[in-house]
């Protein structure tokens, strides 16, 4: 994410747009089911039926989250017979992002899970 700090009005709009886009990207990863799907697609192409079986999620849940990820440009699909095969559009970049997130989680310990606004207890 390139966010420049510029004093002009145009620069401020560009920075706001970049931050908004970044927030949308992270929102795409903010649901545990979407994140599980992304992590599973990092292993390779899968059909919806494969994902439901591997992840123990309902077909409607997987389809809904795949549509969200596709709309965000994170997942692509291609037809295979009557089914579609889903894959990550940018697997290397996605894996780097997930790896960086795991590293940051390791550095923060339980702080993220204990956050009163976004932590585990807040979601319950």
Produce the secondary structure layout.
Layout: H1 9-28, H2 32-41, H3 48-55, H4 59-71, E1 75-80, E2 83-88, H5 91-108, H6 111-114, H7 120-123
Antiparallel strand pairs: 1-2
What does this structure look like?
- By secondary structure, the chain is mainly alpha-helical.
- 62% of the residues lie in helices and 10% in strands.
- The protein is built from seven helices and two strands.
- The protein has a two-stranded antiparallel sheet.
- A hairpin with a 2-residue loop joins β1 and β2.
- The protein starts with 8 loop residues before the first helix and ends with a helix.
- The model has no long low-confidence stretch (mean pLDDT 88).
Percent in strands:
5-15%
- What's the pLDDT, averaged over the residues? 88
> What are the segments in which pLDDT stays under 50 over at least 5 consecutive residues?
none
What string gives the helices and strands in order?
A: HHHHEEHHH
- Widest sheet: strand order? 1-2
* Alpha-carbon distance between the two ends: 32 Å
Number of strands: 2
| C-alpha Rg (nearest Å) | 17 Å
Report helical residue fraction.
55-70%
Q: What kind of sheet is the major sheet? A: 2 strands, antiparallel
Cα shape: globular
Structural class: mainly alpha
Helix count equals 7
